[in-house]
Each structure stands twice: as structure tokens, then as C-alpha cells.
Amino acid sequence: MRITLALALILATSIGGFGQMDTTVMIISKVDFQEQYELHDGNLIHLMGYTQTLSAPINIPAPTLIFEEGDSVNLNMWNLSQGAPHTIHLHGLDVNQENDGVPHLSFEVVHDDTGSYYFEAPHPGTYLYHCHVTSVLHVQGGMYGLLIVKPKSDPNLTWENGYAFDSEHAWLMSEVDTIWHHDSIVNHPHDPQAMTHTILDYQPQHFVVNGKSESQLSSQAIVASVGEKVYMRLANIGYYGNRIIFPAGMNAEVIASDGRPIPNPFNSDTVEVYPGERFGVMLETNAEFTDVIQVDYINLNTQTIENTQEVDVTISGFIGLDELENQDLLVYPNPANNEVQLPLSGEWVTLDLSGREIAQLNSGSNNYDVSGLAIGTYILRSVERPDMSVKIMIQR
Ligand SMILES: [Cu+2]
User: Fold this and answer.
1) How many helices (H) and strands (E) does the chain have?
2) What is the whole-number distance in angstroms between the Cα of residue 118 and the centre of ligand 1?
3) What fold does the segment set 5-155 form as a domain?
4) Of 48, 69, 201, 329, which is the most buried if we count CB atoms within 10 A?
């Protein structure tokens, strides 16, 4: 399949008919000839992966692709890997066979060639994309990423008329066996047409969340405020099972599975995600704490936990009382009666002292009408600057 290079280089977005977007995304498949991807212990490995620009380094996972429901998407791939052919398999998406990236049913793209996948972004949800050529090797090489479909109306909704959230995190779990990265994947080019491939036993030394492990996981830490709704998209593209254990105080509720709403959402601090699966979990915390989210990696042959990673969670209340003392000048008057001046214009969320959301205040200036608030003490948190909270008293 040969398409002119010019087509592959189109990286443009234009408005189609009926409010739907025609979106064109460019994916380049590449391979590292120099070891460049750094693991937590400082070791560097080769990757075979997808990037969106020529100059971008290959990363695991590959860039997350985000579309809106109903978008007409052209996913163009340019193979610059100098070796094996590649595809893009859209895992979990309802696409037709021709665009599914399974080599024998669809098409594969050889070195220096281009190919184009077309689909209409289906149900809002969390999906995966990965290469389907000699998948065991190419996926381990790094040819995988998340694909997220958002509802048209609001990016902070799980789906149309679904759950609203204040922030979201997507975690793609996998493993790295450095031996494969030094031997099988890059140094010994394999014949993708062969029916069998001799590869070493898979014995990963690195168990990763978004390509990070151990101390590197500080980059994935979750920081939220009391009362904030945090949506977690969990996905597994490794060969181990994952058991994710949330602190009890996060009130984890499983609401989506494999790109669909769960008919009967349920509360569970523990969520198991097997290879290829995705889950949507809503978290809401009503107290301040610091803790960790635990990620177990289960060897599916032995059913034993082979590794555990921990990701920090910090749920901050509003700012400490000491700091609040110094904020008298930011809120005037305080105590307030019917009107108050705040340090920022825009939207403020009004919370009671246990972190429950009472109301939203909105103003184009710094003056806010608080006549609707009952007598009492409240915390106001700026929507634009969630780190900025002030305490106000209402007296009449
Ligand atoms: Cu591939």
C-alpha cells in the first residue's frame, strides 16, 4: 500500500459537516538505534515505537490520542523503522476490518511506506492502540498507547449524561524485559513473515505505569483537593495481570469497563485489570490524607504477585489554617454579609468545612454576591486556580 508522502505529512484539522470534526493524525513508527529510554535504575534501552513528529524521542507509552465522539479520524502512519513492517490496531474500537490493523485482514506498512486508517470515533471511553505485527515483540518494543474518546458536549464528562469530574489521570500498565530490548527487538531483526519466532523467556525486571517505575513514579503522583472528583482511566497492555488498590478514603467506584459504562457501577478499592482490559474508576475523597495507590503485577502463569509499585496520592484540604490567617486582606469584608470581594474574578466553588460542595459563585469582577449563602463559615476555592482557597464567614 503506497500512498504519497504528502498525504502522510498532512497534519491538519478541519471542520466537516454537521458539526463533526475531520481530524487527521500523523503517527510515525520508528526504532532507536541508540539506547535512549531511561529506566528508573539509570539503564538505557532501545525502543521500537510510535511518535507524532520526526524529532520526538520514542517513549512508552506512545502519545495518548484524544478524539471527540463522532469525529471522522484519519490516522496516517509513516513507517521509518528501517526494518519490520508495522500496523496500528485499534483495540476495543468498533472499526471495520480493513481499518483494524490486523495484518492479514487489513494491511501492513513496510519501511518508508505510509498507510492510512479511517474510523469514526465511537463510544466515549478508554481504548488502546498497538502494532499487530509479531505483536508479542512489537508491543514489548514499545508500540502501544492509549486512545481516549471524549463526549462532544464536555471533556470533563465520562460520556454524554455520564459522570462529571474535576480532573483525570490515565494509567497504562506494562512491563519491560531489558533483555528483549537489547537482543530480540533491535539487534536481531526478525522475519515478520515467519510462522514461529524463537524468543527468550519473558522475565521483566521493570514493572511500569506509563513507562515509569519506582522513584520515577513521582511524575505520576495524584494531587487533588478534598471533594474533588478524580477520574482514573486504567489500562493494561502488559503480559501480567494488574491489581490496583486504592486507599479506602478515595471511595473508588468502578463505572466503566472496556469503553462502555458499567450497567451497575460498584464501589471497590481493588480493581483487577487483565491484559488488554480498561476500567474507569471515579475517586472522591472527603478528607485530607497522603497515601499510595498500590499496583500489583501478577504473573499469570503462577498467579503470584511478582512486583508491586506505589504511586503517591496527596489529598490536600484547603490551605492550612495558619495560611488562612494571613488572607484577611484577600477577602473583604470578612465576615461578609451579602457581598464579598475575592482575590480573583471568575468561578469559585463554595465548600462547607467538611469539603462538601454547596454552591458555585461566578462573577466577571472581583465582587461576588454571597446573599444566597446561609450564615456560617465556608471555604471558597478558585476553579481557575484550584490551589487558591480562602475561608470566609457569613454574618448578618
Ligand atoms: Cu510493529
Assistant:
1) 4, 28
2) 19
3) Immunoglobulin-like (2.60.40)
4) 48
What residues are neighbours of ligand 1 (ion), with CB under 5 Å?
86, 131, 133, 138, 143
DSSP symbol at 39: P
Q: What is the pLDDT of residues 227-266, one digit of tens each?
A: 889 999 999 999 999 999 999 999 999 999 998 999 999 9
211: alpha, beta or left, given left = phi > 0 and alpha = psi -120 to 50? left
What ranges do the domains of the chain cover?
A: 5-155, 187-316, 321-394
Which of helix, strand or coil describes residue 359? strand
d(C-alpha 312, C-alpha 239), whole Å: 24
Question: What architecture does CATH give domain 321-394?
Answer: Sandwich (2.60)
The SS3 call for residue 9 is helix
Spacing, Cα 32 to ligand 1 middle (Å)? 13
Can 5-155 and 321-394 be said to share one CATH topology? yes
Q: Rounded to an integer, what distance in angstroms lies between the CA atom of residue 330 and that of residue 239?
A: 53
In Å, what is the CA distance from 21 to each residue of 8, 71, 152? 19, 5, 10
- What is the tens place of the pLDDT at every residue in 5-46? 333 333 334 444 445 689 999 999 999 988 999 999 999 999
Cell matching residue 381: 476555592
Cell matching residue 185: 527487538
Distances (CA, A) of 88 to 46, 60, 274, 347: 20, 15, 21, 42
How many Å lie between the centroid of ligand 1 and the Cα of residue 89? 10
Calpha distance 277→195 (Å, rounded)? 27
Cα-atom radius of gyration of the chain, to the nearest Å?
A: 24
* Alpha carbon distance 125, 69 (integer Å): 9
Helix (H, G, I), strand (E, B) or coil at 18: helix
Read off the pTM.
0.76
Q: Which has the closest alpha carbon to 47: 39, 56, 36, 55?
A: 36
Cα 187 to chain center, whole Å?
31
Spatial contact of 46 and 185, defined as CB atoms under 8 Å apart: yes
CATH code for residues 187-316: 2.60.40.420
Q: Ligand 1 centre and the CA of 85: distance in Å?
A: 6
